[in-house]
């Protein structure tokens, strides 16, 4: 295993210390392992809390800041944060207007966020939750009942974050977050396995001539093992199932081509070109774009494609100012 | 070779098409292979042109936009752009105040930018040049006389870009760019080799237990092959030579921890923590930070550390608004 780390057991602690040192706008609770806006709680604003296992950076800690998350809880690598952590983060960002939990659909995350929400409610904090499940690859999976939550989580966090910043109510922000999830579909492909630091060896074997189509962001099996293919063919293998599953209300979409951690920018732009070409042929208009490694699986090489069906409201909230380590514009 | 590409010969063309499709603020000249601000030339503003071999993305095309570059020329992978390309880009962004060429110190780049500058001068465009050579690892190298230009190129582009946006003269912007280079030092480490698409196999062999200290961004040899080490030790191996070579006028620095393409964000933050810890012990105050994969070497795993000695002027220009695909803030 070749990684820029100290002891494998210290990766999450060390990375959180790095985030704290690099970003003075953020405050890290090293005891409870969550990252929050230094100015949280923002009085009268709905607080947004997300989190999950580490290893998907910049999701979630790199998306904390003005216009997006108020706090992110960091579990161990590929392991859900515990209810106490989530409860502490929820308390830390409650500005009196309630807190929205944004949860990726993995059994451990869903249970622990539910428990934290109950505990928060007992202490008088109103909590709503949205469970993100955008991955069309498989119905159930290694750690999931139903579909997995993957890259659309970022879109939910951005758009719900913008709505919260505008002062909308908890019910309104939660409904909007749910709508983003409903209008998003994703699928990914792995060219290589990731390596979990504590394991020290690749999570799965993938021959030099094959790729895993429909990969999960923890290395969970996808739909099928298929021969390595040119980018144009890979794009088709990802776009077809995403489009087939996406209700085509309008034809404006946000296209998000996401790297899985070990894939450089030049390849993501090659993929973007192929995906955009296919969408143009289908009459789908890409109105907004995001290209980069935002929802990763440690050092896995590969990418995912996410489409979000846009309307004017969602587009305006996407465009609204955001100020986080990984996503910044408009201020 | 596992990459998200079509034919290896088409990687640069395809990536440029992706950039054009994803970023409506940018215009790509597919014939001459340069990316420019869609609103270039900006009348009365010094134009900034950079470029070099592809494979270092987002450097340079991802750094074109308001407050930074006006155009970036894309050579083939790890191959300098040709003089005609650079001349075309120079003409396209000349707003009457002259054009600054920002050139990484590799023999091919330096010669080709020089020739383009002469041709531009013959057609009446005033051109100044700065050659970036921040890499303390080696004095001469495979493609370089003198030191190599690496991650400080981004800092030069950002700070000179902000000065140009303020309406400063060509001489003033060029002097500032030179000052940023003079005040910057970098060193990198590779955990794995990159693989050039046209070659199809790793550029060099690196055993599972070793790393290449002082690596160049084309896989050129560094200072030494040393045993793999924990992040804290790697940080020391990079920071010591950088600090030893940096004139410590003031003690405020910008710290840039840069990923080489195959290294995920979580590891960069672990490295950031270790580097920041060492600097604190040395009494060096980190006043600004950048963490991410901006100056890459295709899919190489590893990182580089760059320090820029800051004064108030450089810090203010760093903070100035920038609006590019890879670096955006303040607008």
Describe this structure in words.
- The structure is a homodimer of 331-residue chains.
- Chain A is α/β, with parallel strands linked by helices.
- Chain A folds into two domains: 10-182, Rossmann fold (3-Layer(aba) Sandwich); 184-322 and 325-329, Dihydroxyacetone kinase, domain 2 (Hypothetical Protein Tm841, Chain: A,domain 3, 2-Layer Sandwich), CATH 3.30.1180.20.
- Chain A is 32% helix and 24% strand.
- Chain A has eight helices and 14 strands.
- In chain A, strands 1-2-4-3-5-6 form a six-stranded mixed sheet, with helices on both faces.
- The radius of gyration of chain A is 19 Å and the shape is globular.
- The termini of chain A are far apart.
- The model of chain A has no long low-confidence stretch (mean pLDDT 96).
- Chains A and B meet through α1, α6, α7, β11 and β14 of A and α1, α6, α7, β11 and β14 of B.
Largest sheet of chain A: 6 strands, mixed
Residue runs with pLDDT of under 50 for 5 or more positions of chain A: none
The tally of structural domains of chain A comes to 2
CATH architecture of the largest domain in chain A: 3-Layer(aba) Sandwich
- Please count the helical segments of chain A: 8
The N- to C-terminal Cα distance of chain A equals: 41 Å
The level 1 CATH classification of the largest domain in chain A is Alpha Beta
Helix content of chain A: 25-40%
- Assign the CATH superfamily of the largest domain in chain A: Dihydroxyacetone kinase, domain 1
